[in-house]
Design brief:
Helices cover about 20% and strands about 30% of the residues. The chain contains 6 helices and 16 strands. The strands form 2 sheets. Strands 1, 3, 4, 6, 12, 13, 14 and 16 form an 8-stranded antiparallel sheet that branches. Strands 2-5-15-7-8-9-11-10 form an 8-stranded mixed sheet. The termini are far apart. About 25% of the residues are buried.
Length: about 280
């Protein structure tokens, strides 16, 4: 055979070595094998720090689970004309929002669903009356009744002219819940409770579009419950109603609160009396 050509020899000389193979160290059969050892666990101090971090993160849930019933130093019957600015601090409670009295009226300056709860227990059958006015084009007059005195959407939510003044509702535990009509369709003409469509924790709402809120107009609201029937009147005329097959009542469902989302609302001349 002939000798390799000069060009081929030059290519062989220039081919790089493969360090991953040619330079890989070979393990000696006599190399000492180090046994696996379980890593040391946390020290007592380390466990304490970890527990503190977990408790800090979970504190809101722990507080929610173990908190007591909201205070109720105020009694019913109750009347309030908001002539005294100190009444907000004295008779009411809120977790947020700059609630305050302005010119003898209660101002709700777009509090993002942080109701101002009256610190009084409502009787099961009750009538609640007050003046309500919106100074925002979106309307959105809003209150909560038979809630727990602390949390939004813990009872019924009544909204006149919500969703940019297009819809009014009586909501049960969730203003964005399923409509009553959709629940009836699911029950296929049978009983809502009997079919399991409606339960104690059902989130739903009754919807209507009677008329929008007029900016700057004062409305006189009356909310009353007799038995299972929740009725809502505006300026003395029936507006909406809801006959709840499983009424929200008793502890956790016995407070009233004013509210708002983004609209600037005013309330005045509150009166609450048993029926």
């Amino acid at each position: 055979m002939g000798q390799a050509k000069r060009k081929e020899k030059q290519l062989e000389a220039k081919e790089p070595r493969r360090p991953d193979i040619e330079d890989a160290p070979t393990e000696s059969p006599d190399a000492e094998q180090v046994p696996w050892k379980k890593p040391a666990g946390l020290s007592p101090k380390g466990w304490g720090v970890l527990a503190g971090v977990v408790l800090f993160i979970q504190f809101p849930l722990i507080h929610y689970a173990f908190r007591g019933e909201a205070d109720a130093p105020v009694t019913v019957p109750y009347q309030q004309d908001f002539s005294d600015p100190a009444v907000v601090q004295r008779d009411f409670f809120s977790t947020g929002g700059h609630w305050r009295v302005v010119s003898g009226q209660l101002l709700s300056p777009g509090v993002k669903n942080n109701p101002l709860w009256l610190q009084a227990k409502l009787p099961r059958d009750v009538a609640i009356e007050f003046d309500a006015r919106s100074e925002s084009p979106e309307g959105d007059l809003k209150v909560e009744v038979f809630g727990d005195g602390t949390d939004h959407a813990s009872g019924y939510i009544l909204i006149h002219g919500g969703w940019n003044n297009s819809l009014s509702i009586i909501a049960r535990l969730d203003e964005h819940g399923a409509s009553l009509e959709s629940l009836k369709q699911r029950a296929e003409g049978k009983g809502l409770v009997e079919t399991g469509v409606f339960r104690e924790d059902t989130h739903m709402r009754v919807e209507a579009r009677p008329y929008p809120v007029e900016i700057g107009r004062t409305y006189r609201w009356r909310i009353e419950r007799r038995g299972s029937l929740l009725r809502w009147l505006i300026d003395g005329k029936p507006f909406m109603e809801f006959d709840d097959p499983l009424p929200l009542e008793g502890k956790g469902h016995d407070r009233f609160g004013f509210s708002s989302w983004d609209a600037q609302l005013f309330f005045d001349n509150l009166r609450i009396e048993p029926l």
